[in-house]
Structure formats: structure tokens, C-alpha cells
Design brief:
By secondary structure, the chain is α/β, with parallel strands linked by helices. The chain has six helices and six strands, in the order βββαβααβαβαα.
């Protein structure tokens, strides 16, 4: 089954759970000219369970390049978790628009966009949604945190205090409810 790339363009000012049976993959980047970029990904189920939370620092030439890397990381994490139906959300309108477009990129984005498109074929259903930063606070906080740490960091059962507060404000139970697989339920 080919992935769906349709999207609801309604303006969301606060995080909203995805439709039933779909996981929400929120991605963001934090970029500065003089240091490492931070990438952040927060994956939640339709029942608001935190499935994965990842931060990673990297080198990026521009804010848009970092945002593309964050979306690629989100797609890779969702695939690694075996999730087949996803709603990818980002506050990077330029990148979301390019992913949705069938036209080729003529600059640095070509590699990142091609990789995102290739990896999205793994999913049975995928949407690409632009959301305002206000609705992407959890991923933004994780991306900001990544700039001060080395390597890849994951939190699912115990997110950092700032993230726990944002998730609670978004409606996630605190401490976060674990998915059945995390809790060891077969």
C-alpha cells in the first residue's frame, strides 16, 4: 500500500493527539551559527502514551538543514520502533512543503529530502503536517537540550523535567504512561 501524503492544514496552537491508530512524530531542531545543532523527536501514540523521545546533536549548515535532519531522525525512529502509521509534524514549513512536493530540490536539501522520501515508503500511512512552534514545544525543548549533550539520548519512561512539564501540559499523564511493550505486557 502506498503511503498517504495528505494533510489537514488547520491551525493548531496546542499539541493535539493524532487520529486513532496513528502515531504522532513531532520533530524540531535548534540551530546556532557557532555551535552544534540540536535535533529533537517526540513520538506519541493516539492515546497520548510517550513511545519515544530522542535528542541528538549534529553539525548543520543552516536552520533549514537542521530541521530536515530532525525530520529524517523522526522518520528513522518511528521505523525502528515498527510503527507503520504516522503523522509527522514540524514547525519547518519550508521542509514540510518540499517533502510534499513532487519536484526535485536544487540545493543541499536534495539529499535530505530524498532520504526522507525513501524512508517514508516503509510506512503504510504517513502525513506531513506543518504546525506552529506553540504546538511543537516538546520537540523544541528536546532539540534545545541536545545542543548541550553529546551523542544520541533517548527517554521514554523518564523524560527530563522540562519535557515532563510540557508533556503534562499537552495532556500526557505524568509520570508518562508507558506503552504495553515498555511495560513488558505481551
Amino acid at each position: 500500500m502506498a503511503p498517504s501524503t495528505t494533510s489537514d492544514h488547520s491551525l493548531i496552537l496546542k499539541w493535539q493527539p493524532p487520529p486513532s491508530g496513528i502515531a504522532n512524530v513531532c520533530c524540531d531542531a535548534s540551530w546556532t551559527k557557532t555551535g552544534p545543532s540540536g535535533l529533537g523527536v517526540v513520538i506519541r501514540s493516539d492515546s497520548t502514551c510517550l513511545l519515544d523521545c530522542v535528542s541528538m546533536n549534529c553539525c548543520s549548515a543552516s536552520p533549514s538543514a537542521a530541521e530536515g535532519q530532525a525530520i529524517l531522525l523522526g522518520v528513522e525512529r518511528a521505523a525502528a520502533l515498527g510503527i507503520r502509521r504516522v503523522q509527522v509534524r514540524s514547525d519547518a514549513l519550508e521542509i514540510i512543503t518540499q517533502i510534499r512536493s513532487n519536484s526535485a530540490c536544487n540545493d543541499w536539501r536534495i539529499f535530505t529530502i530524498i532520504e526522507i522520501r525513501k524512508r517514508s515508503q516503509w510506512f503504510d500511512f504517513i502525513t506531513w503536517d506543518w504546525i506552529p512552534r506553540e504546538a511543537n514545544r516538546a520537540a523544541h525543548g528536546v532539540a534545545s537540550l541536545a545542543k548541550s549533550r553529546l551523542g544520541l539520548h533517548r527517554w521514554a519512561a523518564t523524560p527530563p523535567p522540562y519535557l515532563a512539564m510540557v508533556l503534562r501540559n499537552d495532556g500526557l499523564p505524568c509520570p508518562p504512561a508507558m506503552s504495553e511493550s515498555e511495560a513488558g505486557v505481551a
